[in-house]
Amino acid sequence: MSSVDFLSQEKIWFDKPRYDEAERRFYERTNGSSQPTQDDGANSILQDIARARENIQKSLAGSSSSAADQGEIICRIQSLELENHSLHKVVDDLRAALSKLECRVSVLEKSPAAGTPVTTPSVPYTNGTTVQQKTSAPVKDEEEDDDDDIDLFGSDDDEEAEKLKEQRLKEYAEKKAKKPGIIAKSSILLDVKPWDDETDMVKLEECVRSVQADGLLWGTSKLVPVGYGIKKLQIACVVEDDKVGTDMLEEEITKFEDFIQSVDVAAFNKI
Known about the structure:
The chain is α+β, with helices and mostly antiparallel strands. It is 57% helix and 18% strand.
């Protein structure tokens, strides 16, 4: 018996995978109608959970911000209370100083003597009692004449006070004349340019610093590239405006014609 005949007589299910695939598709189609509804329910639940989480986060953020605002308000209130306390203290000090000043003014107002009081003559009555007689206008004139004759302060004291005043004014004028006035100064930054790249910049700087004058003070310097290998000297100085000017500096520096081509003022500032 051949193998083909043997296999034809055997009961073997060669198409089982195809039937299994058909069965799987059938169950998938039957269960497919209920699957979307389950997915919709799950999606709605997930959305509710997301909304709840968002609300919780918002509430937590709002509580933290409100707590921070309350802390800031408390700090401001405390600072205002401290400021109010200090202001009250200043006001009390001012009141005390004002009361002292009022007392001093009242004392000074009462200190000048208006003269000794003049007693009016008493007129006796028959019963033995006495009464003061009213003063008349002529008596008042006499009192005024007497007051004019009396020198309350004294001429010697006036002369001494005038001499002392003149001496103090003289001393003040001498002291003010000796006091030095404010000297106006300026800070100048100069650009000194050479002729070419072969110029000795060290010698050029020595020539610039050799310019000396009363009220002139040289400062720091540096070499700044210009182009084509040429560098310019940038040097600072401080001058007194009444003694040294930029025109004088340019004129004195440009005298070194062998090294210096030109001088420019790069910066000018008042001190």
